[in-house]
Structure formats: C-alpha cells, structure tokens
Amino acid sequence: MTLRRYRHDGRLLTWRARQHRKGLQHETRGLDPTQAPFWHTERYNWLTGAIFAVGAFLFMTGCVLTLISQVWEALDPTTINSVFFLGSIPFTTAGYLQLFQAANAGPFAPARPASAISSGRIALIGWHPESPGWLSTLAQFVGTVAFNLNTFDAIYDPSGWRAQDLVIWIPGMIGSLLFLISGYLAYIEAGHAYWSWRPKELAWWIVFVNLVGCIAFMTAAILAYVPAGTEPAWVPVVGNVHLWFGALCFFVGAILLMRESRDSAHR
To answer: Which residue spans traverse the membrane (predicted)?
Structure first.
C-alpha cells in the first residue's frame, strides 16, 4: 500500500507512503512539525540529500579523472580509485540515514497523535517487508556496502583477470543490481503503480531520475567485466561514461531531495 484516501474529522485526506516515511505529510497524521522526531525533520531530509550529493559528485569526479587517464595516461590509478572509494562512503552514510528513517516510519494510521509516532523503541534497521519504501532503502544500503568493497579493492588493483572479477567486478555487480531493485521499488512507492507518469510531482521526478541513474550504473557494471583476453578499447570508455551519467542522475536526484525537504517545511 502506497496511497490511501480517507476522511477524518470531515476532511478528505490523502496518505502517501513515501511522504509518510520521510515526515513530509504533517497534516495527515495530526503532528505539529516542531514535535516531529529528528528523523522526520527538514534538516534530516536536507542533510541526507546533501550527503548523497557529495558521494555522487565524487563519483563524477572519479569518472572524469578516469577518462583523462584513459586518453593521456597522466594520472595514477590508485589516486583515481581512492576518489571512488571516498565517494562510496557518503553513499553508505546517506543510505543508512534513509534506512533508519524507513525503519522508524511506522504503519499507516489516520491522524495519529504525536505520542504514537515519537514514543516506543527506536529501530536501527527494522523489519517491514510489506513496505516498498523500507525494502528500497534496505536494498540501497546493502548495495552501498557492496560498492565500499568494490571501490576499496580497486585501490590495490589485484593482478589477473580472475582476481579482478572476483574482488572488484562481482561486488560492483551486486551493488548495481541492488541499486536497480532499490530504484524501482522507490519508483513504485512514489508513483503508486508498476509504471507511472507524474511529471508534475517533485517526488516522482526524484525517484525517476534516480531510477535512470540505477540503470546507468547497471550497464556500467556489466561493461566493467574483465575478460581473460583483450577487449575492445571502447568498452572501458563507454562503461565509464555510463558510470558518470549514473552519478550525474544521483547528483540531480539528491539536489531535488534537498529542495523537497525545503518545500515541505514551508507549506
């Protein structure tokens, strides 16, 4: 369930799962924004978007440095791979912030009082398999951890195609696959359908742009496979461009996420 319309005290209200878990719909739960728990505040949502933006920017920087190195061979691969690893850390941090938020969002309840939201035990991860938002944030967080391994192992660049595929390519594929699953679940949650077109809604644009980024990361991961023999020179270049484009989508989505938090606070 991602959308519900109901009447409360004579008012027709609309409950949306994504806005609910992010604390963006104060009017549908009877909660003054000033009484919201810290994970449902404008600052928390804005900070999450800002951290995502930093990670995406570092990935974009790493891609640009890689392209420069592929053309002129002027940069040390260890330095470039370190930039990617530094970028994976903000991704994991922001990914966990979203997972923590989803773990403590609570179920649908018309116009719940503040005490019903802020009281009780705080969950670090939670267990809400019926919630596409929680499943999305869980898949995303685990995916970011896979990228931590992928980018860290790339710093030391093991020799041999088997070792590279085992410690670099496989974690990258796992992370990209989990990102793709996460992106589509978030798309379902915001669009309330398996396929939707809601260009007038900021939330839809956020998840749509991120889903496009996840697809680009997936294609980049496939192209990153290291074969036993030689491969065409265009393959790593195209893979790197796809990775850059995916990071750009994540950067745009993060900026829109920051804007969404501000817009919600001034309603």
So the answer is: 46-68, 80-99, 166-190, 202-227, 233-257
Give 183 or 11, the one with higher predicted confidence: 183
Boundaries of domain holding 91: 41-103+124-265
Rounded CA gap, 169 and 163, in Å? 9
Asked if residues 33 and 26 have their Cβ atoms less than 8 Å apart, the reply is yes
Whether pLDDT at 30 is above 60? no
Total number of domains in the chain: 1
Q: Mean of the pLDDT values across residues 187-213? A: 96
Phi/psi for 108 (5° steps) reads -65, 135
Integer Cα distance of 140 and 184 in angstroms: 11
The answer to whether residue 108 is domain-embedded is: no
- H-helix segments, the chain: 17-22, 42-72, 77-103, 114-118, 132-156, 161-164, 170-191, 202-223, 234-265
Residue 136 included in any domain: yes
Residue of 118, 148, 139, 159 lying closest to 33 (CA atoms): 118
Whether 206 is in a domain gets the answer yes
Residue 61: inside a domain: yes
